[in-house]
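Readers outside the structure-tokenisation community will struggle with the description of the input data as it stands. For illustration, here is how one protein appears when written out as sequence plus structure tokens:
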Amino acid sequence: MRRVEHVMGFPVSLRVDDAGFPGSAADGLFGWLREVDARFSPFREDSEVSRLDRGELDAGRLSPGLTEVLALCERYRTATGGAFDVRLPGRRLDPCAVVKGWSVQKGAELLRAAGARRFCLNAGGDVAVAGGPWRVGVRHPEDAGRLCAVVEVTDGAVATSARYERGDHIVDGRTGRPATGLLSLTVTAPTLTEADAVATAAFALGREGIDWASARPGCEVFAVTSHHRVARTPGFPVAGDSAVRSRT
């Protein structure tokens, strides 16, 4: 089964290699992601996140999902000394950096519960896989037609934070200014919840984020600095030659 839909502002592609996997389970996955977008998007005035930001909801009236997401946001804010912060002064509450990985990981769990054993779920370039090995390309931070690495993952997740799609959108909460020091940072982890949040939090930290992310249990890191230096943890699962190559 192969299916692609545009949800949460980016394409989400699903590939399931298990024979007889029900289409209704794929419907459930994409329905879940649309529900997340409606409830947690800071760009929808009627979302739960927007209502909380306007002071229309108190902590005792939040859904369990938003309570979980905000707890994750606070965990990474504390762990980064405030570099990762979803409540920046002068800006609306924006937990998207956690919501994306969290929601797609829960979507992957829905697939498993429906019987999927070999699948690849790609949400705007951040990927959760099972039953591999699967190969995932890490885009060159300055050339969309090239890869700077290919990752091989059997069961787990890959996420990248970079400037190439949305410019300087990641802010260092300690300074209130766009994060500097890195062009891109990719993390592999057991879940996309962690891979995505760690990649964004590490990018907000700048160069020090490489060591910070590397120290997170279960995480491996591939980073390109603003000076075009590559840093890679020994366990980062590069498939074959790690040299820059053309996308195929």
